[in-house]
Amino acid sequence: MAAxxxxxxxxxxxxxxxxxxxxxxxxxxxxxxxxxxxxxxVSFLVVWQLASQYTRTEFxxxxxxLEVAEQMGVYVVGDEAEGIPPxxxxxxxxxxxxxxxxxxxxxxxxxxxxxxxxxxYRYAKAFFFDFVYLAANVxxxxxxxxxxxxxxIGDIGPAFVVGLLVLPVITLNVAAGVEGVDQNLxxxxxxxxxxxxxxxxxxxxxxxSPFLFxxxxxxxAASWKLAAxxxxxxxxxxxxxQIRKAFQGFSVTDxxxxxxxxxIFVVVIERTVLMRLERWVFRYRLRRGExxxxx
Amino acid sequence: xxxxxTLTMQHSPSAGNRLLExxxxxxxxxxxxxxxxxxxxxxxxxxxxxxPTPVETIEILVLEFQTPFERxxxxxxxNELVANLLISINRTGIALIFIILIGVPVxxxxxxxxxxxxxxxxxxxxxxxxxxxxWALLSVMxxxxxxxxxxxxxxxxxxxxxxxxxxxxxxxxxxxxxDMSDAFDVPSPTRMRNLALPSxxxxxxxxxxxxxxxxxxxxxxxxxxxxxxxxGFRARDWYQSAANYNGLMAWGIVVLVxxxxxxxxxxxxxxxxxxxxxxxxxxFGARTIELTAVEEG
Lengths: 295, 297
Known about the structure:
The complex is a heterodimer. Chain A is mostly helical. Chain A is built from 10 helices and no strands. In chain A, helix 2 crosses helix 10. By secondary structure, chain B is an all-alpha fold. Chain B is globular. The C terminus of chain B is likely disordered. The interface between A and B is large, with 80 and 77 residues.
């Protein structure tokens, strides 16, 4: 989404420099950008450390980065004395992730047909417009409350509200994709007697899939957060429950540790899995060395 | 989409067709869907023992409106419904000032100087990945009751989103025009008014809209987890101390209505007046939906 962090002074006039020169310049620019980026991260850690030193009270309100890292280590390798099994963090994240997946699957099953209808028929668009608008604007806390209201304490609630959250995104993107299908191509395929199946495969699906993918990717981080929130409100397993325990036990260290895990999971999945997937899906329109995903 | 239109236009409307045609109008279709939504809500209320019906929800809101706030004298502004709502809105407003004061300069600077952009890239990425509700829990632990917790939570969770929007806007300022104004020594107020603001307007409005909604969500969340007044507190109070699901639902609806009023009543109007030169906006006279829920968390 955002622009590359390649410095603008390094912009190369193609006429004046040779390609190897250009390549060298871009590489050095990348290095510089990485250095500044590291500087940003380091200064954040320093500020955190200083803040934790100056706010020391008996309640341990702001533990330093090292203490949090230590606690994170405990959640990964486990601790016999505290009764934390090894790999505890993975168990919990898997529980939350599973619910997110169920919600996603439900949203896909319901959202794709509605999206196709909305893209195809004016009546369907007008009919579903308010539903989609409403669902897209509900604050996360209202979703969490809704899950608690309908399903009470349990694990169906989180999955259900994730579905509700993702549904409008999928629907809108599919509708946009269907509207964008080239009608001339369809007409041509009809007049040349192309079977419906191949028309679907070669015209509709290719113009639909980028939209569908963009929608799913955009809602990934939010759905993950909502699943955890709904678990905190009324779940029995998963990250959200651990976070609730940390809050009830008034342990800021635990809370920060789970928060950092959260950041790591979101960033790692976005940067490795989703970015690769996106590159693969959009490979036909990607220029060499270009990344699509930045934020 | 156009198939239906041409189809209905070709036939001359007979008596039976006229009703069908009426039902097919955009406006009528939208009201049909609203009616169906209400019926679904009613059905859900009857089927479930927890989920309240629309009437029950409105009843409890009326009750809230009739109860004076904290044993004071009842007036239009001093009742449980309006007073708590105003407290939350006030907190959101204060948080919003900070969000804009931090987010806009940082976003602009990131678009203007690559060093600034590189410096903040990782911080913004991490900030975007942090869930707002964990900030809410942390700020309750740190600041307890009062105004500091909701404002802090809203600022830390909404600012990264605004920064990204402003950054995109500031990248859309035409390079050559900027270089030219550099070369001709155009004073920066003029440059701001005539170059930066017009090209950033859309992104700025989108970003601020998002921050308002995100800040509102944060304030309500913090009030839910730890506060003694405000919309979120009332929702939790009904749920926990009275085990009253109707009150929970009613306040959930109030929170949702505030978002819709802000979006439809205020932001859309500003957006329309800024983009007057662009002509018609969207299919239903409304802007195409942007997905706040998705970016808000």
